[in-house]
Input
Amino acid sequence: MSRPSCPRCTRPLEHCLCALIPSLDSRTRLLILQHPSETRHALNTARLAALGLRNAELVVGERFDDLATRLAQPGYRACLLFPGEQAQPLAAHAAQVDEPLLLVVPDGTWRKARKLLHCNPLLDALPRVSLPDGLSSRYRLRKAPAEGALSTLEAIVVALEIVEAPRDFAPLLAPFEALIEGQIAAMGEDTFRRNHL
Output
């Protein structure tokens, strides 16, 4: 029998994060495209980002038939937050664009995120932007597959702080930190130190 869950943050009621989730405005619009395998993940950071930002939308799937409509938001210029050879630094791209950005963020493992791009050719046609090198994740429960790899929520916070400087989007990280602390407490400090430090 499953434990009762919060309908908003989907965490078990005794671990609900809603009190920590802010409600922030941003000039930048976010379209988070989540691979279905991520929805059941205990650390669903894309959901936390969508809940904490008023100008964000989370869409779950592999193929998005209405993607052209979602990308054609009046008054916004769409770009894809995803590293690669053609990716331009986000700060440089934002400086060249007069309109607010519609930042499209794929959410999933690197393999699943690449699959989203493959299944949705419109994504690959977007200008691609990347975050600066040398970033480090607060995600202490998972080894990063590459240096500078961040959770989706962390990447969104960094991106928004670049595009909308000097605004501070760190309050979005409060439920993320609580989630990690809760996971560490559940496994026990000794187990955490043995397996993750």
